[in-house]
Amino acid sequence: MPWRVLLIDDDKRLHELLASYLESNGFEVTWAQDGPRGLAALASDVFDLVLLDLMMPGMDGLEVCRRIRDKSRIPVVMLTARGDETDRVVGLEIGADDYLPKPFSPRELLARMRAVLRRASPDSVVDQIRVVDLVVDVPGRQATLAGKEIELTGVEFDILVALARRAGRVVPRESLLAEAGRGDVAVGERTVDVHISHLRQKLGDDPRTPRRIKTVRGVGYVLVKEPT
Q: Reduced to 3 states, what is the DSSP secondary structure of residue 195?
């Protein structure tokens, strides 16, 4: 299941941009145009993370964050065009989990969201992912294939987690490392291809006719749910 994100922001163009990008990376985005609507959405539905604009007409993001924290520990990432350090400190002190000034890269936002979700309660992130005989133990950072442990580098493991979480669905090449939460790693097509090649070798995949990690030409990669 995709992670469910509530975006509370009065900027329609930002909503359209983030909805398109995040939904292509395994998130379902619901939009609330102001603070009261956002709080109402949280009261009536279940979400995994909130993206919250600081500067909104009427009820601002700081007040919305205070009200969220009165009732919930849901992860909150604050977004703002205001660069004042005081706002950042206040936002974090009242319970925001992270803070990203506008303008920002959607890829950086995705990496930060994944990091916040990993730090959140275990209910927000699946502990163990099973795809046929492949088992990925996320908190233990171990993967086994047919009961045998696979030796993976840190980046390889994170990429495998990203693919396993969305088994059967294509993960775009250009965003794969960000999807894996590796915002600290320089991303390029060659970088991703090399890591995928190493993963295939360790999973016993024939590089000429891979069964587990298949290439979708011009798009990205998919971890097959039922290898043939």
A: helix
Instruction: Give the DSSP H/E element, type plus range, for residue 70.
Output: helix 61-71
In this prediction, the residues of the chain whose per-residue pLDDT falls under 70 are 1, 82-85, 87, 121-127, 174-175, 177-189, 227-228
What DSSP line would sit under 114-178, residue for residue? HHHHHHS-GGGS-SEEEETTEEEETTTTEEEETTEEE---HHHHHHHHHHHHTTTS-EEGGGHHH
Measuring CA to CA, how many Å separate 212 from each of 11, 17, 219? 41, 32, 17
Q: With contact defined as beta carbons under 8 Å apart, do 8 and 32 qualify?
A: yes
Q: Give the H/E segment covering residue 43.
A: helix 35-44
What does the pLDDT read at residue 161? 87
Q: How far apart are CA 55 and CA 74, in angstroms?
A: 20
Under 8 Å between Cβ of 103 and 132: no
Angle at 91 between CA 85 and CA 44, to 5 degrees: 155
How far apart, in whole angstroms, are the C-alpha atoms of residue 71 and residue 127? 25
The structure's pTM equals: 0.56
Three-state SS for 213? strand
Asked if residues 150 and 205 have their Cβ atoms less than 8 Å apart, the reply is no
